[in-house]
Amino acid sequence: MLKGKTIVLGVTGSIAAYKIANLVSMLVKQHADVNVIMTKNATNFINPITFETLTSNKCLVDTFDRDFQFNVEHVALAKRADIFMVAPASANVIGKIAGGIADDMLTTTIMACKAPKYIALAMNTNMFENPILQDNIKKLESYGYNIIKPATGYLACGDTGAGKLPSEEELFNYIMRELHYEKDMVGKKVVVTAGPTREAIDPVRFISNHSTGKMGYAIARCAMERGADVVLVTGETAIAKPPFVEIVPVISAANMFEAVKSEADDADFIIKAAAVADYTPVNVAVEKMKKSDYDMSIPLKRTTDILKYLGEHKKDGQIICGFAMETQDLLENAKKKLETKNADIIVANNLKVNGAGFGTDTNVVTFITKEGVEEMPIMSKDEVAKEILDKMIEFDN
Q1: Domain range for residue 384?
Q2: CB of 127 within 8 A of CB of 91?
Q3: Quick one: 95 and 197 in the same domain?
Q4: What sign has the CA pseudo-torsion 147, 150, 156, 161?
Q5: Cα 333 from Cα 66, distance rounded (Å)
Q6: Three-state secondary structure of the chain
Q7: Residues 123-181: tens digit of each pLDDT
Q8: What's the pLDDT tens digit per position in 213-243?
């Protein structure tokens, strides 16, 4: 995913330096070219050989190291960088960068770098709260640096408070947001529904479905990484929420309908990927419950048709995508849904096809539009998400 991207990581003297080895490994697995620069203090916490082994690149420490190819090393690396992240960033290095001091390889290189720069704070709570440090942070922000605030918790010094380096996963997400995709959706608002809904039968029991939310979450993440402002309306799931998106949790189909309705007016793209629980008298399970000792005092009703409502109230320029999950007559039912719901795109997939359906990491979909039918090969859900958004951008243009 990051092939062809050059990532420079600056590691400073903090006990959290050991965590960066895992971040480096995560980035290398995405085929990024990772280059690590360490301060001399950082070498007391983790050996440069660790990073050299993981990256297959020389780990730079000494500004005047003669063991490299003949070029001005800090300038060459600064020019190649697509992103420069200092993690962990100590109070000392933050003060140097803010003051324009370039007295080692890390501060010299970041001074020469014009790529996006991220500073991930990690230090003692009292140091973090020091007004001098806070002024330096504000100064860096005014210069266009992206500040990643520290987490709160138990620190190596024994104190509890703000100062923990954010997790490797969080740092990885910042890099992915910056580099994974071109920012072709900046200024667009995208509303995505995902996951299952639940319809209560009584205070204990409910009707739901097997949706895991994976497809909707992949769409939300992809849209975010392409620069969109994303609102994710989601039923309860067991998977991690995508970062940097607005999460609106819901339980029932009525909850989801109200949430989508309130967000739809100013949305450019709406993707209904949620599998809404069907709560109707004709449901076989409900008929069986009627004959059992279940409390059927709650009146049965058909759930709100969210996609139909969106189609009936579509705004000028708004693009709507729905999903059709079928076990038979896939194309016929999907084409009918496209017309009756007034959608722009229907993403159809047959639950009986290997690699498609709930809970899988792959999907096999067919795009249905007024222009025709396009069958896609088996792909990861991340790849399907990109194709869906590509289609919607085509409509928008």
Answers
A1: 189-396
A2: yes
A3: no
A4: positive
A5: 69
A6: CCCCCEEEEEECCCHHHHHHHHHHHHHHHCCCEEEEEECCHHHHCCCHHHHHHHHCCCCECCCCCCCCCCCCHHHHHHHHCCEEEEEEECHHHHHHHHHCCCCCHHHHHHHHCCCCEEEEECCCHHHHHCHHHHHHHHHHHHCCCEEECCEEEECCCCCEEEEECCCHHHHHHHHHHHHCCCCCCCCCEEEEEECECCEECCCCCEECCCCCCHHHHHHHHHHHHCCCEEEEEECCCCCCCCCCCEEEECCCHHHHHHHHHHHHCCCCEEEECCECCCCCCCCHHHHHHHCCCCCCCCCCCCCCCHHHHHHHCCCCCCEEEEEEEECCCHHHHHHHHHHHCCCCEEEEEECCCCCCCCCCCEECCEEEECCEEEECCCEEHHHHHHHHHHHHHHHHC
A7: 989 999 999 999 999 999 999 999 999 998 877 767 777 889 999 999 999 999 999 99
A8: 999 999 999 999 999 999 999 999 999 999 9
Considering the domain boundaries, does residue 273 fall inside one?
A: yes
Q: What pTM value is reported for the model?
A: 0.89
- Three-point CA angle 248, 249, 252, nearest 5°: 125
Cα within 13 Å of Cα(118), Cβ side: 25
CATH for 307: 3.40.50.10300
Domain-embedded: residue 72: yes
Domain boundary among 179, 204, 228: 179
Q: pLDDT, tens digit, for every residue of 179-204?
A: 999 999 999 999 999 999 988 877 78
Catalytic residue among 59, 157, 222, 321: 157
Q: How far apart are alpha carbons 278 and 198 in whole angstroms?
A: 9
Q: What is the CATH number of the domain that holds 63?
A: 3.40.50.1950
Same domain, 153 and 206: no
pLDDT bin (cut points 50, 70, 90) of residue 278 is low
Q: Is 157 a catalytic residue?
A: yes
